[in-house]
Amino acid sequence: xxxxxxxxxxxxxxxxxxxxxxxxRAWSCAECAEQRKTQLIALAMDGLPDKLVTLxxxxxxxxxxxxxxAALVRAWRLIRRSLERQGNxxxxxxxxxxxxxxLGWPHLHILVRGPFIPQKWLxxxxxxxxxxxxxxxxxxxxxxxxxxxxxxxxxxxPGKFGTLKRYWHSQAFKLSVYVSxxxxxxxxxxxxxxxxxxxxxxxxxxxxxxxxxxxxxAQPPPI
Length: 223
Description:
Number of strands: 10
Number of helices: 5
Radius of gyration: 23 Å
Mean pLDDT: 89
Largest sheet: 5 strands, antiparallel
Strand content: 25-35%
């Protein structure tokens, strides 16, 4: 993370010059972790989930946390397919987040928007697929409720197990669609912090505006 905040991406063409701070986005970076937690909570709220499903893995000799986590991922994939095959084939949209317990063991928390999931049925599926029948299904009443659950289970960061993702979601989980126009400006990685970039353009007589903590604009002096 040595480069975090020490470099910028800056436009190289055009009248106005724009620079944004280049971040490492690592969960182990204190500043980036806070930003990513905020983004994850916003994603959870955006999906308007109506239930929270928790899958656990039964601890047993010889089973490593990484293998237990992989078994949870596989089990959820099969359970989701089974749910979508049943009844009216309603789609199951989800955001899955790993939690690492104090003992280093994985729990998989899944925010779901979709059909009713009977807890007894889910328990039976997990018993069959992962020898782990302990599950939990609870309703979510609001966007604030979704944010509350995510905040609770990622006090520091989502759990990390081997090469598995800390969290992932179905393609259509996020309901809000943001459309952005593709810009034509060229961007260049510069070995300057945002502060140093601003000072450099001020030396050339540019008017520099800090648009946020991570973005600045430099405008040339009047002709």
